[in-house]
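Standup notes
- DV: blocked on the single-chain target, sequence here:
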Amino acid sequence: MTIGFIGLGRMGGPMCRNIVRAGFDVLAYDLSSDAVRACTAAGAGAAGSIAELAGAADVIFSSLPMPSDVEAAALGAGGVAAHARPGTAYFDLSTNSPAAARRIAAELERGGIAMFDAPVSGGPAGAEAGTLALMVGGDEALFDEHRTLLETIGSNVIYVGPIGSGLVVKLINNLLGLVSVAAACEGLMLGAQAGVDVRVLDSVIRCSSGDSGAYRALADRALSGDYAAAFALDLAYKDVHLALELADELGVPAPLGASTHNLMRMARGMGLGDQDPTVMMRVYEEPFGRVVRDGATVTAP
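- DV (later): unblocked, structure below
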């Protein structure tokens, strides 16, 4: 079996290498030659184009940043639909719109290509370790046939339902996490402005009902002042945007998601889009001239 992997960034690169280490023959493609070399050094072959990769692969994966990138790779003139053989299985690991995934899947099905939406959760560390969660939508019987392959990149491989279902679950998960980060920003700044030592506030929250993984992620960043991106705000903003589009399609009110989206928009307007999503804290810090850092409240310069 030949595996094709399109998109070798911070998530795709480690996933590709884990498939190689599991003993599969892999063809890798990315616009970045450095990203390709990192995978060929692990034993993958290099494809010169998506068309070349699609024509040779039995199973294709893609891990791409934006919905437009997925559409181009899947349906573009040099893409999967035009060059993959009938019987090929295509797993898109990107975070996309469920409606777009269903539309792309319908186009691919005309050529005998079965598509799965298989977004992942766990970040670059999970991608490196092979411990990602995969939320997979598509044909269940065909999913079962490829479970062993999927388990080379994730320790929690979960079949969700028909095509698009994996993305619905992923968008809800990301929405919940990012709304929680926004709430944590609000709480820490409220405490800081009230004159409470935020180190004490943080220690109380961590053993009380306000605690969560999202809270800890924000607090750790805010108290250190380190917002270097593990996952860029720009991509998180895209995910919340897609969740709000889904809410709009279904007529479901999403006021918390909308306010978080606007907070993220303000952070992006401050030029912070390439930093970690927890940099939303800066939207609160800037107006008050106060930086929450090192367990104390410090007046910003």
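- Follow-up: The chain has two domains: 2-162, 168-299.
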